[in-house]
Amino acid sequence: MNKNYYEKILNKLKDYFGNINRIDEDFFHELIKAVLSQNTTDKNSIQAYNNLIKIINYDLKNLSNDKYYTKVKESIKIAGLTNQKTKTLFALGKKFFLNQEYLEAEKRIRKLEVSEIINTFLAIDGIGLKTISCAILFGLKKSSFPVDTHISRIVQKIRNKKISKKNIQLEIENSIKDREKLKALHLYLIELGRNICGSRKQDCQVCPIRELCEDYRSK
């Protein structure tokens, strides 16, 4: 594989889709969004997040207070996996918000290396590599490349080989160091998966990266 392979993909996707804007929040809000987004649609996860923020009175510290547990559970029901996600949110709250404000906790986290941040949060049940990588990329604005279902499927298709999500992430992070480029590639590949290279139907003739796709070239 050419060392500039993913840079070429990024450039072709940028030419095709143009700029994709995303408003990033702070670390813990991005982490909560990522937890709620697991195994559901964007629409449902956004609604669950908005419900949650209102029910805890816009104060993340309340995720360490058990009297909010049932209310939080009800508020995020639309996102599915309600029991697991509620447990994860309160485990997060009790670990980081019980005795300090969340922005103070974020300051401490910012001082850690990315690998240390990942290991710290993988220890919390319900937080996986993709989830914490989203919070690192969008919330801390550090270099990381979250690999969701769309990205995993597309990369395996264009490479025409089976690759684990973890290895896809490592491969792309080793290829592209710039955080803004990693963010852009992440967003572009998701857009490609939603609109052109779907799980059931692919419109290869309009795909902007078909010339770089091993699966397409093998047909």
TrEMBL record:
Which domain of life, per UniProt?
Bacteria
Enumerate the spans annotated as HhH-GPD domain: 36-195
Sorted alphabetically, the Gene Ontology BP terms of this entry are: base-excision repair
Looking up SUPFAM superfamilies in the UniProt record yields: DNA-glycosylase
Q: Which UniProt keywords apply?
A: 4Fe-4S, Iron, Iron-sulfur, Metal-binding
- Cleavable signal peptide: none
Give a yes or no for keyword Nucleotidyltransferase in this entry: no
Which molecular function terms from Gene Ontology are attached?
4 iron, 4 sulfur cluster binding; catalytic activity; metal ion binding
InterPro entries attached here? DNA_glycosylase, HhH-GPD_domain, HhH_base_excis_C
Record protein name field:
HhH-GPD domain-containing protein
Species per Swiss-Prot/TrEMBL record: Thermodesulfobium narugense
